[in-house]
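Input chain follows. Return structure tokens only.
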Amino acid sequence: ALALADAGSDDALSACLLDAAALAQSGDAQAAAAQVGTLRTRLLALTDPLLAVNLWGYLAMVYALAGRLDEGIDALQMQRRLAQASGQADDEATALSSLAGQYAQRGDVELAVAEGLLAVQLQTRLGAGLARAGALLNLAVAQVSLYALRDALQTLQQVHEAAASLPGVGAELACIAQDTESELWLRAHQPQRAAAALQALPTEGVS
């Protein structure tokens, strides 16, 4: 795709970011991050809002996989602003949920919870089943990190309720939720409940 696109065109920029995203997903995230390191100025010059939102999302993914949290968060913030400004609510919600996860990884747990709550509210309004379940899971992880354990337990219950209506992938979501609940009980100094949560991990439908 890079060879077919005119140098400096939006198509070339898209091809470069798609190539970097594929490279990062294949396991060479550091090389991918190096590949996109000079693209920020070109991204800022984009005039197509839909394309800009998508490409900032790819940039954020590359940086996240490379463990470069600050740059990934910066890209997600830009994606969220552009999505909000252009009325792309689904992309805004996705960016918010991703921000919750990235903030939690960076240790900014209060920000993580705040963004996670916004993501869940927006996904609920949109009626997005799988995306809402993922947003709830990110929120629960952030709440556990903040030691808002009662809130996290309620959020995890919502994850289970959402997962029950999602054939196939729902089992995997429920598995992650149980693992998160085990971490919750460890933080609450209740190792027996933590062990029980792990024992309750679903086995059917999990790949």
